Amino acid sequence: MADRERILKIRDLNISFKTDNGNVKAIRGVNLDLYKGETIAIVGESGSGKSVTTKAIMGILASNGTIDSGTIDYVWYDEYTGERQERDIVQMSERELQKEIRGRKIAMVFQDPMTSLNPTMTIGRQVMEPMMYHYKKSKQEAYQKALELLELVGITDAEKRMKNYPHQLSGGMRQRIVIAIALSCDPYVLICDEPTTALDVTIQAKILELIQEIQKKKNLSVIYITHDLGVVAKVADYVNVMYAGKIVETGTINEIFYDPRHPYTWGLLSAMPDLDTDDDELYTIPGTPPNLIYEVKGDAFAPRNKYALNIDLRLDPPTYYVPGSKTHKVSSWLMHENAPKVEMPEALRRRLDKMKKEGV
Ligand SMILES: Nc1ncnc2c1ncn2[C@@H]1O[C@H](COP(=O)(O)OP(=O)(O)OP(=O)(O)O)[C@@H](O)[C@H]1O
Predict the structure, then answer these.
(1) Other CB atoms within 10 Å distance of the CB of residue 191
(2) What is the pTM (predicted TM-score) of this model?
(3) 26 CB within 6 A, ligand 1
(4) What is the CATH code of the structural domain delimited by 6-236?
(5) Which of 4, 42, 146, 178 is 20 to 30 A distant from 331 in Cα terms?
(6) Which pLDDT tens digit goes with each residue over 263-290?
(7) Looking at ligand 1, which atom is closest to the CA of residue 62?
């Protein structure tokens, strides 16, 4: 643990979008760390800000979006001199982002391979092009590397596949191609946005295993964005739980799955479909997330939280470390020393104990 190297550090990130109805404060003070070779997951309901956060990391916010404040410091080693560099992506020009970051140091795998592949271009050309653009590789070199990449992502008959168009491949194959393209410029960070949602269950597991295998081989850092806690349990080292543009709880996979502290995390875990008991009644968190056009007063989760305290309605909670942990942090007034002690719902406790026993 001692020589973990942090390669991405986000501090107090605030992002808003201009809309006809007003300003949407989509990201409200996000802090996030990513270390070399490790995997973090960002989880939360739809609209919680997962995609906006990762788009900011890539410098691809929608044109009506603005980074109001905060830093996104990214570290890498110059490929020629080996010199360590640290840069704030927020301060980079569009040209620099395109040349240095997007598709090169940081690559992204989107949910639906069909929308990220060009239907009119052969697979081969799509895998070769980023290498020719970013690294000025010759056609022959790019071709060779493309073949290697296709083999790396488990595509047999790579030479023949290079001549195929996306529609000639299955969904799982297409996602493998998208991963090959993402890897073509040797990125340090791979962002996977719901990478398996569009695939059927058996293929999902294979794609997750593939990403893990490649991650180990290349010492990649991976960010998963997902609302599927089952995926998170399989792949993540650290979990960040997002609600209404804030990270409300963060910790190691064991801390989040076996000792969750935030009532929102309790809700998400209770709502997770159970793997083997289909007679379980599936829980849903009551209510809906706030409309972020309006200023949030106090804790944004309070109206949906049956454990909310009076202070939640007035003041946004600070972030507390869970006693005894250096990694587990929770933004909730319930962590205050004077707060009444509340326990997670009994049904969730039983469920988590069962998962633990089964080693899920
Ligand atoms: N271009 C935009 N203009 C206005 N609001 C936006 C824009 N993009 C995102 N938002 C708002 O920002 C908030 C966060 O959205 P985001 O897409 O990051 O959520 P998410 O957690 O990724 O959800 P999902 O799981 O559905 O992808 C939402 O309230 C969304 O409506």
Answers:
(1) 25
(2) 0.92
(3) yes
(4) 3.40.50.300
(5) 4
(6) 999 999 998 876 555 545 678 889 999 9
(7) 1
Q: Tokens 């587990």, residue?
A: 328
Same fold, 6-236 and 241-358: yes
Q: Which run of H or of E encompasses 118?
A: none
What DSSP assignment string belongs to 284-309?
--SS-PPPTTSPP-S-TTGGG-TT--
Distance 26 CA to ligand 1 centre (A): 7
Q: In a mutational test of the pocket of ligand 1, which residue from 13, 14, 16, 17 has the highest number of ligand atoms less than 8 Å from its CB?
A: 17
User: Tens digit of pLDDT for each residue in 99-147?
Assistant: 888 878 899 888 776 778 999 999 999 999 988 888 888 899 999 999 9
**Amino acid identity at 30:** V
Q: Which atom of ligand 1 is nearest to the CA of 289?
A: 29
Shortest-distance atom of ligand 1 to CA 245? 14
Sequence ranges of the domains in the chain:
6-236, 241-358
The reply to whether ligand 1 has any atom less than 6 angstroms from the CB of 156 is: no
Rg (CA), the chain: 21
Determine the topology of domain 241-358 in CATH.
Answer: Rossmann fold (3.40.50)
Atom of ligand 1 nearest to the CA of 291: 29
Nearest protein CA to atom 16 of ligand 1, as residue: 49
C-alpha closest to that of 242 among 229, 259, 258: 229
User: Helix, strand, coil shares of the chain as percentages rounded to 5?
Assistant: 35, 25, 40
Residue nearest to atom 2 of ligand 1 (CA): 17
